[in-house]
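Let us begin with a simple case.
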Amino acid sequence: MRIDIGRCSITAVGLAVAITFALAAMAGPSAQAQTFNVIYSFAGHSSAMHPIGGVTVDQRGNLYGTTAWGGAFDGGTAYELRRTGSSFVFGVIHSFEGGTDGGFPWDAPTFGPNGTLYGTTGVGGTHGDGTVFNLQPPANICRSVSCPWNETTLYNFTRGSDGGNPQAGVIFDASGNIYGTNVNGGGGDVGVVYEMTPSHGSWTYQVLYTFTDGQDGAYPSSLLIFDPAGNLYGTTTSGGLPGCQGFGCGTVYKLTPSGSGWAEHTLYSFLDGTDGGAPSAGVLMDSSGNLYGATPGSNGNGGTVFELNPSGGNWTFNLAYDLSGGGPGPSQNLVRDAAGNLYGVSWGDGLYGQGNAFKLTPTESGWTYTSLHDFTGGSDGGNALGGLAMDSNGNLYGTTYMGGLASCGYCGVVFEITP
């Protein structure tokens, strides 16, 4: 199964990244002592296998995520890890057929205002170009974690002007509207940003912005964020200023409500130098309005973590840290704690070339790097493609695409890091 993302395939992101798991071992920063635990090792086709996205944590500490393959129809799954004391019980809550209900979910689901789960699939649906879906728990009390949830398809992408093949999940505004990105479709087949508005039990779909493959960028694959004023922020993996074989090395962009539409502002264009390039991860914002993000790699190194600071209507780029471990770095969003520390995962860096989890601590002279865990590709997992999630106690949760059970062919794990 393959999602065609056009020339975005040159950027070390996309499906080629997800299925490239033969990485050479390479030297990297030393890991620091942390409490690392594998919560669950995926068991294979009949259950679930190979998560690309991370997990979502609810208020009770339960975890929810998706896998790209496996399930009853091998079209991917949505799963729950229900907390029972100090342990978790795994259950598949939906098996995607890969047909009309969608298939190949790329990112973790999101809780909507009604307390149910919303997400996207990269393929499938009526036209084969992906869906937006909603999962609701069974109406009757279910005592088993494996009870299937009820799946409803909210929208079927056509890869026309509406876009198609979403790789990111969705977010909500205060009014309950859904926002997301499509890596394909639009006027030049280089992606769109969309909104879905609830209306009398259904949803009204509209495109907020169509990328042009110019300085605005191309192929948006990241999760969006809002600022307090209602502006949207995200990244593109291609486009922007010339570079990267003439296709552009990606951008950070802002969408501002303007009259009856939205105006696009390119905040930064990557050059694939020391700044990095081809960001598939989105950005996060602190209380001062600074943006933080990451790139998977530049000039053969392990990626970058960057900061964008607003000043007088302009944005200043600062390299927070060069993840020069030799392998691909973060492919999904960083997280930030109340003290301002940043956390992320790489999918090909670390001591063993199988990725690692890391922490960046702000100091007066810059950022201090700590490796929290170096994946070996064995029972602890390997190649962390999804981002991290943090619970209210500061515990970190994530997934790896590979590693885990040898009997499964190393189908990935869900892990916990306790500070």
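The second case is a distinct protein. As before, the sequence precedes its structure tokens.
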Amino acid sequence: MKLYTFRFKGETLIGAEREGELVRLPFADMLTLIRAGKAGLAEAKATLAKPRAKTFPLKKVKLLAPLPRPGKMLFSGINYRSHLDEEPGAKLFDEPRFFSKLPTAVIGPNQPILHPGLHRNVDYEVELGVIIGRKMHHLPDAKTTAGVFGYTIIHDVSARAVQFKDNQETLGKNFDTFSPMGPCIVTADEIKDPDKLRLQMFVNGVSLQDMTNEDWVFPLSRVLGHLNSVMTLEAGDVVTTGTPAGVAAFRHPSPWLKPGDVCRLVIDRIGELVNPVVADPALSK
């Protein structure tokens, strides 16, 4: 299933896609559905199959981030061989590495990325978002992917001038609007081979990143295995698997994002996530 969070006539709902329409699902929000586990998915599939279920035209609703307020957000750093090769002085780590992004950074499709100023060196990164479906703690690698609820597209926006100054990765990654997510969550049963997915990043129609997950340094099972050996992963948490080569920071000259740009991220079998870049209006006050 492709699952969406959307707004229609002032009401926020969740739905599953069926032939260009969204079938309304009987859950208060996406997190409630995720926490309902297998029983929740079964109820969602049964609702989707009802010929007289309440529907909304997909083109007439406002899409929100599929998980507007996720739990923990753990992003993999340097998990593509191509990205490792492009970064001067980068070395291969023995285990996956991570940084945190915060729920306040999340926005949905077509919402603007607020640009904090050209001096911040704002960068783009396309990433596969992995939605955790159940509690995981000290599970062996081989059992972790069974706990995945689904997959989405996430744009890891960064202010490199902040991130690279004194290694302030948390601050550089967590400006408001720096984590666009969407357009939907594709349930895990629809994508049994996430290592084969192709990720693409376009800025103003120009291709800047294009790679399949076969370039991963650590597979998804190892990423989740290492994380859940350190902390408990819970339903509604989000984990990413890194970004491929082509980021602005390691291009010469660097094509930093600027107001007026349009970012389009594509992951096959999930869809595309589009967001414009606009100057943060708070800076003009």
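The chain has two domains: 2-63, 73-284. The chain is about 15% helix and 35% strand.
Keep these points in mind for the review questions at the end of the chapter.
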